[in-house]
Amino acid sequence: MKIICIGRNYTDHISELQNEKPEDPVIFLKPDTSILLKNQPFFIPDFSDQVHYEVEVLVKIKKVGKHIQEKFAYKYYDQIGLGIDFTARDLQQKLKEKALPWEKAKAFDGAAVIGEKWLSIDEVSDINMLNFRLEKNGETVQKGDTGMMLWKIDELIAYVSQFFTLKIGDIIFTGTPSGVGRVMPEDKLTGFIEDKQIFSIQIK
Predict the structure, then answer these.
(1) Each residue of 147-177: b (16+ CB within 10 Å) or e?
(2) What angle do CA 70, 156, 9 make, to 5 degrees?
(3) Rounded to an integer, what distance in angstroms lies between the CA atom of residue 201 and that of residue 45?
(4) For 185-200, what is each residue's pLDDT tens digit?
């Protein structure tokens, strides 16, 4: 199982972090050890003082594919979910300044929240106009719409499959909108697609 993450896929998030708009999707990977275990809290690691939440729509791959054409990409998934790409922002900034890979800041243990609830494509009216949000302690801190993506889900699948063979169970994190922020001990993060709660986790 691979966790394939897309960075800089929402213009407003690119702007808030003062990044350049990419010509192609930015791709990075997380290992399976980065998955936050079921019913476990997220423990802020001792190597970072600035761990940020980034809520993202997830796509679960249902069959093997390589060099997938965009027009056939819809055949490779039938479920979407929601998760968090936790990022050690202070560490990431240091790595970026030295033009080094991001893995230590993005792929540490527990850095990938995958909501337990998955929605069938049949349950949503339009996957390319899907509302989602993240609440922190009951207050909405991130709000997104897949219509705001620079690259839509089918485009991402086609692009990613040029470089990596997609296998059953692989999960694609499709990028985060603006509103990312720091987590603190005792925070509670709850994610929603439309009006459906997909996950709720505690920060320690």
Answers:
(1) eebbbbbbebbbbbbeeeebeeebbbbbbbb
(2) 140
(3) 16
(4) 999 999 999 999 999 9
pTM: 0.94
Angstrom distance (rounded) from CA 189 to CA 203: 8
Q: Specify the CATH number for the domain of residue 171.
A: 3.90.850.10
Rounded CA gap, 24 and 203, in Å?
34
Is the pLDDT assigned to residue 35 strictly greater than 90? Answer: yes
- In degrees, rounded to 5, the angle at the alpha carbon of residue 145 between the alpha carbons of residues 65 and 203 is 90
Structural domain boundaries enclosing 165: 3-202
> Which tens digit of pLDDT belongs to each residue from 40-92?
999 999 999 999 999 999 999 999 999 999 999 999 999 999 999 999 999 99
Amino acid at site 115? G
Contact, 175 vs 83, CB < 8 A?
no
C-alpha pair distances (Å), 103 with each of 20, 30, 43, 189, 202 = 20, 7, 18, 23, 23
User: 3-21: per-residue pLDDT in tens?
Assistant: 999 988 987 655 555 666 6
Q: Which of helix, strand or coil describes residue 119?
A: strand
Which amino acid is located at 53 in the chain?
Answer: Y
Q: How many domains does the chain have?
A: 1
